[in-house]
Amino acid sequence: MGTLTHFKNLYLQAFDDCKPEYLVFLLKVYSAFCAIMLLMAFYAFFYRAFTGFEF
What we know:
Elements: H1 2-14, H2 21-50
């Protein structure tokens, strides 16, 4: 659990003192979008792997 807290702290520190604020918001939305796309890719891979899909 400490690793997740460490990554959270790194993420929050990356945006400290960044200007302009709209760019910070845009980067946070983009990082969330990338995380969602990565999770979808993992889901699709494991779904195909466990259902016997021929690669």
